[in-house]
């Protein structure tokens, strides 16, 4: 069945912060995402990425257009049930904490959804372990480092066990090593449980692991394709490391292939 | 700002720390009520001894408790003076018009002083030995019967929790903005009153803006994570009432009995 | 005029706010020469921010002293010395846009100069001079700082520090929270200041890529002490040591190690940037 395949459908989504002005923060954005897909949304600050995230979970109301999650249209009435399937991790971890300790904070969403005490305990433990923060269960989240805060914020959403998770630059403060770790965990959840991931990011290494890339520019969806295609066709877009190296080598007159390469492919080529 | 004792928590493992926040709150309220029941020096002596024992058991230096009294000392002395000057009765030591210093006045003044200091001591014991989150939990549980009167108990305790969370953040932020403006050449505590007021603008404005932003962000987070005040919620924190808590309450009841008996036996003044 | 910064057996601690573990500097000896560009790295709570604050006299040493050019900050410096220090040392805090307060951008940038006794007329001229440095134009001057985008707010805040033409510039994660372009522009701006005016720059960052690309020297801090102070290339050579400090390796260096391991060919130098790496790969005939 066609409808079952796409878990998220966005049609002609348009939004303005100021109705008196003509410039739209988002104009006629349409795309759809399949269950278990990892989609990265890239674009400069001000291109409308964060606005899009807010529209998807119903924090903002669109001027026109629609959002459908698992076939259900997002409205004032359905937004609470939709939020049980779709979690959003915000960019700024400073202001995300409600609980006084890490475990309290992770549990907040579960309390709201009336999850029983036993199950809550278990889910909180699991989620905290997924982000490697089990040593900090009793800590005050506002005293953690930026990266640790972001991991706790992610755990708060993972404990929810959503079908779709939206990361709004939610991993920027992580050091490269823990970022790779968290991404591996997310990939695992994607493979094993069919978690759908939408990651809004500036980090092209993070974007490169996605199955598909959406490029936003001035409120419009400029391109929707695989990372390889996008980085090949947009030489001005900041690229993942391997692609940057490939471009540099080409500029210096090396005879390297003229197609996009992942890091592993690059290593293989260099070691030939 | 670091001198402020009220509302701070001192981590520790004493018996007082381990008591259930509900037991601590109930006992403290009971104790404060007793201060108003007590009318003779025997009762006050007993209550002072009890308070000192509890303070000792908390494992926190008596110095810290005295620090808690210090910011209020002028208010206390003012009230005590009024009591001394305007209570008449017993031997009169000094008499000028409406102002008299009498025996009863002096005794009353001493009692009032003890009352104030003990109220501060006992409430400080509670706040110093209980995590803010446990305190709000305790309050939530104690207020929960009011739910039947349609009092939004959960909302109140969530508000308390968030307010408590905001305080350290706000202090951090204040320090940061002050540092930033000092680095830009402003100096605090100098110049006329008007000048000093003016210097507050570069601090208060940014704090205002950031608090608004923070509140907005937090509201978004709460909404996305499914918080609706109309919906029933479960609670992740469970308070466990232990034997020691029952013992504490029993001691409190016995103390109440003694104070009441003392009130019956002893007259108003010694 | 450029300035050196010299720490002599500096110890300092904090007493800010309740329930705060003290952030401490312990016996810090550090010489940052005039016109140097130094990156300070280390984990949260290692004392990086405290180090920065002492240079500006915002945190005073309990023991030892800090020399900033001719000025000396010790336990109880005079008000004149502190004012002089704050005038010569520009300090950009993390998320500096949090310090914006005035009605217009112009007033906000003028705040520093006016505090340091510059006349209103002169201050306005200084503001006009500083704008191009941070890539802003004069039409922004009458706007409210709160109506600007995040990136512009950051620039205005940095302009508010640069406007005093400091000889030493101290920055705490100036690129945090910006998109890659915005971050790149800020760091390039610092580099230009450093190259053109010889401003001594001390930059706290956790991004090793930035350290590799912009800094000349690296200071590693841990537990309130200086763990090491090295030229950047030497610093990134010893990867084992970096791992021991659990510090990251810049991408280019990481890739270099991977290639060296898989091909058994040593590249001729320690690669800090992609440019380095590409040249090295071509030189040894791998690419």
UniProtKB/TrEMBL annotation, chain A:
UniProt xrefs under Pfam families: ABC_tran (PF00005)
Chief location of this protein within or outside the cell: membrane
GO cellular component: ATP-binding cassette (ABC) transporter complex
Bilayer topology: Peripheral membrane protein
Annotated ranges, domain ABC transporter: 8-243
This protein's UniProt keywords: ATP-binding, Cell membrane, Membrane, Nucleotide-binding, Translocase, Transport
Subcellular location: Cell membrane
SMART domains: AAA
GO molecular function, a single term: ATP hydrolysis activity
InterPro entries with a match to the protein in the record: AAA+_ATPase (IPR003593), ABC_transporter-like_ATP-bd (IPR003439), ABC_transporter-like_CS (IPR017871), ABC_transpr_CbiO/EcfA_su (IPR015856), ECF_ABC_transporter_ATP-bd (IPR050095), EcfA_1 (IPR030947), P-loop_NTPase (IPR027417)
Family affiliation: Belongs to the ABC transporter superfamily.
Protein's UniProt name: Energy-coupling factor transport system ATP-binding protein
Organism of derivation: Paraliobacillus ryukyuensis
Automatic annotation (TrEMBL), chain B:
InterPro entries hit by this protein: ABC/ECF_trnsptr_transmembrane, EcfT
Bilayer-crossing regions: 72-94, 106-128, 246-265
Transmembrane as UniProt keyword: yes
Keywords associated with the record: Cell membrane, Membrane, Transmembrane, Transmembrane helix, Transport
A single GO molecular function term of this UniProt record: transmembrane transporter activity
Compartments reported by the entry: Cell membrane
Quaternary structure annotation from Swiss-Prot or TrEMBL: Forms a stable energy-coupling factor (ECF) transporter complex composed of 2 membrane-embedded substrate-binding proteins (S component), 2 ATP-binding proteins (A component) and 2 transmembrane proteins (T component).
Function recorded in the entry: Transmembrane (T) component of an energy-coupling factor (ECF) ABC-transporter complex. Unlike classic ABC transporters this ECF transporter provides the energy necessary to transport a number of different substrates.
UniProt similarity note: Belongs to the energy-coupling factor EcfT family.
Name of the protein this chain belongs to: Energy-coupling factor transporter transmembrane protein EcfT
Organism of provenance: Paraliobacillus ryukyuensis
TrEMBL record, chain C:
Pfam families, alphabetized: ABC_tran (PF00005)
GO cellular component: ATP-binding cassette (ABC) transporter complex
Entry GO MF terms: ATP binding; ATP hydrolysis activity; ATPase-coupled transmembrane transporter activity; cobalt ion transmembrane transporter activity
Enzyme's top EC category: translocase
UniProt keyword annotations, A-Z: ATP-binding, Cell membrane, Membrane, Nucleotide-binding, Translocase, Transport
Principal location class: membrane
UniProt cross-references to SUPFAM superfamilies, sorted A to Z: P-loop containing nucleoside triphosphate hydrolases (SSF52540)
Gene3D superfamilies the UniProt entry points to: P-loop containing nucleotide triphosphate hydrolases
Localization (cell): Cell membrane
The ABC transporter domain, residue ranges: 5-248
EC numbers for this chain: 7.-.-.-
The keyword Disulfide bond is annotated on this UniProt entry: no
Topology versus the membrane: Peripheral membrane protein
NCBIfam families: ECF_ATPase_2
Assembly: Forms a stable energy-coupling factor (ECF) transporter complex composed of 2 membrane-embedded substrate-binding proteins (S component), 2 ATP-binding proteins (A component) and 2 transmembrane proteins (T component).
UniProt similarity note: Belongs to the ABC transporter superfamily. Energy-coupling factor EcfA family.
Function: ATP-binding (A) component of a common energy-coupling factor (ECF) ABC-transporter complex.
Name of this protein: Energy-coupling factor transporter ATP-binding protein EcfA2
